[in-house]
Design goal:
Blueprint lengths: L1 H53 L2 H13 L2 E3 L4 E2 L15 H8 L8 H9 L9 E8 L4 E8 L2 E8 L5 E8 L5 E3 L12 E7 L6 E9 L5 E7 L1
Helix pairs in contact: 1-2, 2-3
Length: 227
């Protein structure tokens, strides 16, 4: 009888351990899959930026297809904290319609605002795993945005050709969370693209404040990419 009881508790312990391990693997897989998708979106936006700068129409269309394959949805939950929303006319819009228009000889830069507004009203795709939104920042200045998030947060910005950016991220919630996730490399010089990732509480909404600093002496557009 004693042997039976011991074997019973051992089997319960092993079963519990296996369930816990399965949950851990499941969580890891989900994070890994999301990371892969957002990196694909970052790479597609970089390729679109470079193709637009060099006038390589074939590469431009390919980058648009690659971005669309990520299932992007416009980041409508990204709220600009600036007093004035500036025009992106004359600048790159990181969107398939813009790339298609530019590759087919139309003056997409002149109509960038219209194309950006169209992207904002576009419906949710079948995937919807990635959020993107083209934004604008004046020369030598910064722009601030905020959005709500919970769980695993992955965030990136990619500047149009010639742009160099630095990113500051501040996270808070009503339970006292107060974290910074700022760039620490080439902060004054800036980089053409930036990314960060961090974990947030799952049981409440957290406010993410994003500041993007333009380290160049020219106005630039950039895209915000989030999971």
């Amino acid at each position: 009888m004693k042997r039976f009881i011991i074997l019973f508790f051992i089997s319960v312990f092993i079963g519990s351990f296996n369930l816990s391990a399965q949950d851990e693997v499941s969580d890891t897989t989900e994070i890994s899959d999301t990371t892969e998708i957002i990196q694909d979106a970052i790479d597609a936006c970089i390729a679109m930026r470079d193709a637009a700068a060099t006038g390589d129409n074939a590469a431009l269309l390919k980058s648009a297809e690659d971005l669309q394959a990520c299932g992007p949805v416009n980041f409508n939950g990204l709220y600009c904290q600036d007093d004035t929303i500036l025009s992106v006319n004359g600048h790159l819009v990181f969107d398939e319609a813009f790339a298609d228009s530019l590759a087919n000889g139309r003056d997409a830069y002149r109509h960038a605002d219209d194309l950006n507004r169209s992207a904002a009203h576009r419906g949710r795709t079948a995937n919807g795993a990635i959020l993107t939104r083209t934004c604008f920042v004046k020369a030598g200045q910064s722009t601030k945005y905020s959005f709500y998030s919970k769980g695993r947060q992955e965030l990136a910005v990619v500047a149009e050709a010639g742009g160099l950016l630095t990113m500051r991220v501040h996270v808070t919630n009503n339970a006292g969370l107060n974290e910074w996730h700022n760039d620490t490399t080439d902060v004054k010089k800036g980089r053409p693209q930036r990314k960060t990732a961090f974990n947030l509480p799952n049981n409440r909404l957290n406010t993410v404040d994003l500041e993007v600093i333009n380290c160049t002496n020219r106005d630039i557009s950039f895209v915000v990419i989030s999971n």
